[in-house]
């Protein structure tokens, strides 16, 4: 196997209950959307990627086909596979039950930390932290490559975990990835709720949309291996930039 001298994707722990090609495509998608500007655009070969993820070349090919159809990569015979720098970042919200799908969903564009600090728990968040009265709150705004706001997020994280969070990591990666890959939290599950809402004054101001315009409101609760909630996130997506898709696989 040749050494990876091109773009280096993140590692992946496979879940045998989900299609392998899907997990690989979502993990690679998250790596692509979370890349630094100075990272190379050329991807490793199919063989190298398959070895990196521990899957067959056929599975890797199927994963790459998914990303090519989405417009994130382009494939050229004899030249190789390249990340498409002008790829659309406002992709549909697609979930199939894996943590890497969540990471991929929340990756891409440019993220700025607007505010952080200890804060009282709102009623809808408090039910997930029955042993706490306050948590560390992070507010972040994500924009596309053109600088247009696409969503803003508010995370409530247990204070003992928040002590190890670097703000620079939050400007590059979603909170889920920081908790799992940087802090080493063993994530057992994430519950997701998506509902249609109307933009309140703060959301309208941050997303630059008219007051009471439609938005997608996402709530995600992340649990560790002991079953306790470690992070609750509320994300407000512009309704004209995102859709929500659930894929159900027949067994």
TrEMBL record:
Keywords: DNA-binding, Transcription, Transcription regulation. GO terms for biological process: negative regulation of DNA-templated transcription. PROSITE patterns: HTH_GNTR. It comes from the Bacteria. It holds the Pfam family GntR. SUPFAM superfamilies: Chorismate lyase-like (SSF64288), Winged helix' DNA-binding domain (SSF46785). GO terms for molecular function: DNA binding; DNA-binding transcription factor activity. SMART domains: HTH_GNTR, UTRA. This is Transcriptional regulator, GntR family. Residues 18-86 form the HTH gntR-type domain.
